[in-house]
Records
---
Amino acid sequence: MKAVPYEEAIAVPFIIAGPGVPTGKVGKHNLVSGLDMLPTLCDLAGIPVPDTLLGKSIRPILSDSTAAWKEAIFLNVDDNQQRVVRTARYKYICLNRPSDNEVLFDLQQDPGETKDLAKDPGLSAVISRHRKLLDDWMKKTNDPFMATVNRGGTGH
């Protein structure tokens, strides 16, 4: 488990080599998580991927980084006190505290994650989309964090 939600701590390279894996390719834009490791290894080994796994095989993006892929990845951070939704452009962080419990970074404009945009009224649709992604993920995974979420004093 990660202790902080910043890219320097959570962005870990997913490096794979072997038969059937193209060489010399580097994909920097696909969202891949540790949950994708076992499905990928099963797929490349010709073993059926169990339906119960939350990740998915990266095989489609190994040869074509533009292939349809995930919209987001999710992380549990700081001993289950935070949840992170990482999309191609944004990082949304939901914290387990009574106020100021949402953080949003635009990783294209602010790769150093220095300017919190969560209260920017022009990004309300982005916040709503990331909240929904997180809520759907927490429901799918029966995440107990969902019961503790109180966004801006309004609950969810």
---
Amino acid sequence: MKEFVLRVNPILCDGHGLCAELFPEAIELDEWGYPMLEPGPLPGSLEAYARRAVAACPVLALSVERSETGRRGRAAATPRTRPT
């Protein structure tokens, strides 16, 4: 099954919130308007929606990466945390 990981660069992110409007299946906003991402890989069926949110980001803070499953069977992911 094709999977991908959505990542946010907290340094670039200005908290515009467009990503959460376009891709609420995997992105929520914290109380300051910064994205919190769904942890772990997402199903390939959502990739088009993720790429639309990435393209709409005014500061290019979002990216989509292929999910790389390691020996332990877990994929690298951005945790659902507030940027510092």
---
Amino acid sequence: MAKAVFHGQVVAESDDIVEVESNAYFPIDALDKNFFKENTDVKTHCPWKGDASYFDVVVGDQTADYAAWYYPEPKEAAAELKNRVAFWRGVKVEK
């Protein structure tokens, strides 16, 4: 079972992980929605995956801005990432 942890709090947990470019992508349903806030200020583009959207991860008074990303409409080459979220910026993934 893989877990995404921020400041000691498990914010996502699943045994259904897809690994791409050393990132663990969790099913979006594995996120504890209490700890996520949509961040519409940041968008990025990957040439082969598509346009990424972001969530801030918030635990108590600690916030990791745009620490979770996902591809709402991934390109065909990255279709397996649809409805999946990966982490960085202080959110640790434990496997």
---
Amino acid sequence: MQPPDYLADYLKLKAANDQLRERAKQWLFETFGRLIAETNRSFSDQPGVAMIQTGFQPREFKADRATMVGEAMAARYRMNTLLVEVGWPRLPEHGFLTGPGLARGRISLSPNPTIDANLIDELILKQRGTEADWHIISNKQIGAMVTEEYLRACLNRVLAD
């Protein structure tokens, strides 16, 4: 009888979790991007109204004691910038996620590009069978699921003057 290959099992689990993380990150960014595109189309009927500018960049941020490594999507309208960050520990020195999450995220708003963004909500990616859903962390508890309506409300905050 051959002993179990723990390394192979670990690598298989890691690959499956990484696929869930990437799909969840793509859903979040694509949904947010689509909402921005819809908003920009509505602005195109109004001459002189600024469009929402978007951009992506690599990002690291802290969640509890761990370092999340990932990507950020920014949406800028006039002076307001909404920042959506997603990441997870990639190396042993990044630490590990506590609780039942596969990844973490943050949504923040800055009234000025030279000012640090104010945290709106922290997010956690929670596995559900073979899928995963983003949830809002409220009072250190897993709260409501992140929906398109929630992302639209976040986008509306960047549009408020």
